[in-house]
Write a structure and sequence with these properties.
This protein is α+β, with helices and mostly antiparallel strands and 562 residues long. It is built from 17 helices and 22 strands.
């Protein structure tokens, strides 16, 4: 075989390899001369731009590149010759006018004295779209993180710290966020492994968890924290980062311990609502839906007024907006209405978000359902100021009302009267039938006395079988006031002397009925705004003992006022 034939065969093999490479390549390959004219192109590139090979053979790079002008392209070609190869991003225009984001790799080569550019283009439209979506998502989280009081952290999938919200620095005294540090390091050693397991489960399952743990500050003090975690995913559903929202619940823990309500667990659900500057709702989180019952689809594009319960007048909302516009924030309690019509108390925090020019661009509102806390407060208030058996005001509430009535009497010159009642024949009932039956009588006494006095008057249980009645706003004349007090006392004396029919039932015994006769002794003192509440209670008590010594079932006034 001659050398010429060997060279020819070798050239044919190389040509076949070149053609196979051009056909099988997944990227769009095109060869251009130094003027940008197509010399050769593969099917992938033709398909990418929507042209036939014949159409592309007559085209120049300026016909499809949408980023640079022809002059700019020629200038870039000169630089490519000097650098020999380059990797860059640009945009290609398809035949139908649509644009593609592409990554182009170029290499220059001289063949038979002619310089050519070999280029391969890879479609990166999906990658660009994913990057833009991630940037938007990160911007949203940044806006939330920097304008709420909760502590927001972004972690990688190993639990290393990528971002801490400014609230972390304010609360924990950090001067800067140390990227890449272990986010579990500050967790109390006894809680650390449990929180790591929860974190790993969130990464594995994609389901966020609400957890409580102890956090150790730099000064060694311990804070109780509550956290909720969730995943940031790309468009393909792949987990990228973990977002953790935390709040300090140390104060809640302290209150629970002090009030000894260990059986009641407050699971706080905090919703987040973002609006534009015109208060049109843009986004809400899952907790918002859990609290209000409205899904994101039902509220986005609407205004928060759809939650209004009707319990607040226009002045209340005007005050709220005045504070929000003056100071950039407002917080307080609002009665809102859920989707199902239920009205509930909500602790609201609203923060105005401002742009670089100082204009308000968004509002961020956090919502906390405090229904359970309100119920507990009412229960505690009832225990603090009322008798558990009769539901009458107790000594504490009586003294408070007496002091208020005395202050009003001092201003108006109108007298009031205080009655101290003691049941005369109560102990034998307890001894014969037990305290539960005695309690039935005390409840009936409270009912009878309340039926006689006015709504403005107060009937209180002082202790045991002792009761106090406070009559307010009687008369400007002391004698006339004493006369009115005597009339009321006589009515009470007569009503309490009537027989008591008490029905009770004990385990294993059918319902039983006891009839008991019980009178009362009443001591009365007329008061104005001079003196102390304790003195008037003491004087009424002394007058009551005088009534007992006089034979019981009688009335005595302190100082013989009537």
């Amino acid at each position: 075989m001659t050398r010429h034939k060997q060279v020819q065969q070798k050239s044919e093999v190389l040509l076949q390899r070149h053609q196979a490479l051009m056909k099988s390549a997944l990227e769009g390959i095109h060869v251009m001369d130094m003027l940008g004219n197509i010399v050769e192109v593969n099917d992938t590139f033709c398909h990418m731009l929507g042209y036939t090979p014949k159409e592309m053979s007559r085209m120049n790079v300026a016909d499809w590149d949408a980023q640079w002008s022809r002059a700019e392209l020629m200038e870039r070609f000169k630089k490519l010759v000097r650098s020999n190869s380059a990797l860059f991003e640009t945009k290609h225009r398809r035949k139908d006018g649509t644009l593609l984001d592409v990554e182009v790799s170029t290499t220059g080569a001289e063949i038979d004295g002619q310089y050519y550019l070999f280029a391969s283009s890879r479609d990166i439209t999906e990658r660009k779209r994913a990057e833009e979506a991630l940037r938007e998502q990160e911007e949203f989280f940044r806006m939330i993180a920097e304008n709420v009081d909760d502590f927001i952290a972004v972690l990688d999938l190993e639990g290393r710290r990528l971002y801490n919200s400014p609230s972390y620095a304010r609360f924990f005294g950090e001067t800067e966020t140390i990227k890449g540090t272990d986010s579990f390091a500050e967790i109390h050693p006894d809680d650390r492994e449990r929180i790591k397991r929860v974190f790993n489960e969130t990464v594995r399952s994609g389901i966020g968890h609400r957890v409580e743990f102890r956090f150790v500050l730099a000064n060694g003090s311990i804070r109780h924290m509550e956290s909720v975690s969730g995943l940031i995913k790309n468009s393909q559903g792949k987990a990228l980062r973990v977002v953790v929202v935390s709040r300090d619940i140390t104060e809640h823990k302290r209150v629970e311990e002090e009030l000894r309500i260990a059986a009641i667990a407050f699971e706080t659900q905090e919703g987040i609502m973002v609006t534009d500057a015109q208060s049109v709702i843009l986004r809400v989180n899952r907790a918002f839906t859990g609290i209000t019952g409205y899904s994101a689809e039902e509220v986005v594009g609407k205004k928060p007024r759809l939650l209004q319960s009707g319990r607040h007048d226009a002045a209340y909302y005007a005050m709220m907006w005045d504070s929000l516009l003056r100071t950039g924030g407002w917080q307080g309690e609002i009665w809102n209405r859920r989707k199902n019509g239920e009205v509930y108390p909500d602790y609201h925090t609203i923060t105005a978000v401002k742009g670089d020019n100082g204009d308000i661009t968004h509002y961020v509102a956090t919502m906390l359902d405090i229904t359970e806390r309100k119920r507990v407060e009412e229960q505690i208030h009832g225990l603090a100021f009322h008798d558990a058996l009769t539901q009458l005001p107790n000594r504490r509430l009586l003294k408070d009302r007496l002091e208020q009535t005395m202050a009003a009497s001092k201003r108006s010159g109108i007298y009031g009267a205080l009655m101290f009642l003691d049941m005369d024949n109560f102990k034998p009932l307890n001894d014969a039938h037990g305290h539960d039956v005695g309690d039935l009588l005390l409840v009936e006494v409270a009912h009878r006395v309340n039926s006689i006095v006015r709504a403005m008057d107060t009937v209180a249980r002082f202790g045991g079988d002792e009761f106090i009645v406070m009559l307010s706003e009687l008369d400007a004349d002391k004698v006339e006031s004493a006369t009115q007090a005597r009339i009321v006392a006589e009515k009470i004396l007569a009503l309490l002397a009537k027989p008591y029919v008490l029905k009770f039932q004990r385990e294993g015994i059918a319902e039983n009925t006891v009839e008991h006769h019980c009178t009362s002794s009443i001591g009365v003192v007329v008061f104005d705004g001079e003196g102390s509440a304790d003195d008037f209670i003491k004087w009424a008590d002394l007058a009551m003992y005088q009534a007992k010594e006089a034979g019981r079932n009688s009335i005595r006034f302190y100082g013989s006022e009537a």
